[in-house]
Backbone:
């Protein structure tokens, strides 16, 4: 069983479009995250969320918004996509501050 | 604020040689420290972690790391490199009381194994 899954694996879209990436974890963890990995492989936290609070990295544009329908899911919505949004996006989950388990990533290409 | 410095964006070693990947951190409180590996076009896989127990930590695939508070370091080693170790390695830190802030990653070290 896949612990943290993401769909789609690849996403190619035009500038200005709105898109979503889905994430599901079956580990029973209380916290989920979204990270962005740029073309230089640098990983940066975008959001973390548990059932109590959403923590947003202040550098993330408000075109990005996480949506959590339940404890096992944290989807990422992106409005008005820009060229600079092209990256690999990783979902992760953890139980508190312990080990984070990562999904396989979604490679987003904005044309 | 936390930060992580990985010395050397690329490290090249011969097959069978010692692997040493360097990581230094800064944190206002005793941190949790992690090493993750990323193979091409894949997600991140945990190699090992330090969470305030033993300072010498053993991980998967023969890797280990030693937490040295005085040097604020958490270097990753493997006695004998294998071709399959070629990958990107990331050191990361989190604060035990602030886990919801996510991990702070170093910029990564690309490990190249020469035959």
Residues:
């Amino acid at each position: 069983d896949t612990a943290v899954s993401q769909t789609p694996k690849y996403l190619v879209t035009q500038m200005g479009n709105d898109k979503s990436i889905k994430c599901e974890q079956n580990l029973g963890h209380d916290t989920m995250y979204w990270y962005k990995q740029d073309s230089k492989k640098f990983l940066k936290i975008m959001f973390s969320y548990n059932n109590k609070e959403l923590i947003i990295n202040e550098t993330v544009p408000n075109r990005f918004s996480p949506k959590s329908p339940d404890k096992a899911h944290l989807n990422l919505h992106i409005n008005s996509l820009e060229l600079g949004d092209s990256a690999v996006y990783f979902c992760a989950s953890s139980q508190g501050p312990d080990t984070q388990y990562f999904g396989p990533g979604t490679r987003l290409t904005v044309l | 604020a936390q930060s992580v410095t990985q010395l050397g964006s690329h490290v090249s070693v011969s097959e069978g040689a010692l692997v040493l990947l360097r990581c230094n951190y800064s944190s206002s409180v005793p941190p949790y420290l992690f090493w993750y590996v990323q193979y091409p076009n894949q997600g991140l896989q945990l190699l090992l972690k330090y969470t305030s127990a033993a300072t010498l930590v053993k991980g998967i695939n023969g890797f280990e790391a030693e937490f040295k508070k005085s040097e604020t370091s958490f270097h990753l080693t493997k006695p004998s490199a294998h071709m399959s170790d070629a990958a990107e390695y990331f050191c990361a830190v989190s604060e035990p009381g602030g886990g919801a802030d996510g991990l702070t990653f170093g910029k990564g070290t690309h490990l190249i194994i020469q035959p």
Remarks:
- The mean pLDDT of chain A is 92.
